[in-house]
């Protein structure tokens, strides 16, 4: 059955693939973003959409009979000219504007790309499940990290809406670290260094998910009868030592207080974009349990965390 779908952030890394996949599956797709797409998809309507502007959001919904919204617009990797205020405007205010649009125009379902970062970076993460976080654990995104804090605020907004407006179905995807053949970001930059940084006494495990799996899950969320919150990650996790071994590299193990002091100095001198708060990010990473994704949502990722990392490593060798 064909569905009228509005995708926010339709020109982004995930958005462009989601838009193409939905169109190829026969859905009627409206792709909203700030600029025109580099490679327009035949049959897709592209609209100028600034989620921070209520009028722009309203115009994207008007007279289009939108049934499902896939909300991907967010600031994942801030640019040099970015600011906390701008990121909040996109991530939080922008989501509020999109949700208002959904309610005003009778949208049936919204699919939201959240993040494992919404759980926050805390020493007691997953304490009830041997370090693994389930969807029943609280979201406690740290205020020190804009992305983590904003995902928490968005999820709190969505939780309130589930009570006040249950008629708007929700699929909330808490996505782990995405890898893919074209992925190149702040996380993968850590793996490109000659030696991998490790905090003494911390395994710093990562969970990975291949990008085509994320796209497939989002596309399935548009039409599946299942709603709810789902961790999106491959099976298993990889510690910093595991990653270093796979890359044939060594680790640089540093006591947390020493790294914190070094980052504080580097930030103050302008030689590092990262401040002392980054030690928490490295020390207490959220490790996502994916059983609900497989057992309730009905999707098993094509690659485990280790297999996704191996595929990313091979793509870098071939580049």
UniProtKB/TrEMBL annotation:
Source organism, top-level taxon: Bacteria
Organism: Saccharomonospora marina XMU15
Protein name: Nucleoside-diphosphate-sugar epimerase
Pfam family, one: Epimerase
Ranges for domain NAD-dependent epimerase/dehydratase: 5-232
């Amino acid at each position: 059955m064909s569905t009228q779908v509005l995708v926010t952030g339709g020109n982004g890394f995930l958005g462009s693939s989601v838009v193409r996949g939905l169109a190829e599956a026969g859905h009627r797709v409206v792709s909203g973003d700030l600029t025109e797409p580099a490679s327009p998809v035949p049959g897709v309507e592209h609209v100028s959409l600034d989620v921070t502007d209520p009028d722009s959001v309203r115009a994207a919904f008007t007279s289009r009979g939108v049934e499902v919204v896939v909300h991907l617009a967010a600031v994942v990797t801030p640019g040099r000219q970015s600011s906390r205020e701008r990121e909040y405007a996109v991530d939080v205010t922008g989501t509020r504007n999109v949700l208002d649009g959904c309610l005003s125009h009778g949208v049936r379902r919204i699919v939201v790309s959240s993040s494992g970062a919404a759980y926050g970076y805390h020493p007691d993460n997953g304490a009830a499940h041997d370090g693994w976080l389930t969807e029943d654990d609280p979201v406690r995104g740290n205020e020190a990290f804009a992305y983590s804090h904003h995902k928490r605020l968005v999820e709190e907004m969505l939780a309130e809406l589930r009570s006040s407006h249950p008629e708007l179905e929700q699929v909330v995807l808490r996505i782990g670290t995405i890898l893919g053949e074209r992925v190149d970001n702040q996380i993968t930059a850590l793996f490109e260094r000659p030696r991998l940084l490790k905090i003494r006494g911390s395994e710093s495990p990562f969970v990975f998910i291949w990008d085509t799996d994320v796209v497939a899950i989002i596309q399935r969320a548009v039409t599946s009868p299942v709603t709810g919150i789902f961790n999106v990650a491959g099976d298993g996790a990889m510690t910093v030592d595991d990653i270093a071994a796979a890359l044939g590299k060594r680790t640089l193990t540093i006591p947390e207080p020493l790294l914190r002091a070094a980052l504080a100095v580097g930030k103050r001198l302008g030689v590092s974009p990262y401040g002392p708060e980054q030690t928490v990010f490295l020390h207490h990473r959220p490790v996502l349990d994916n059983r609900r994704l497989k057992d309730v949502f009905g999707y098993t990722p094509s690659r485990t965390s280790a297999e996704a990392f191996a595929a990313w490593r091979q793509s870098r060798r071939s580049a």
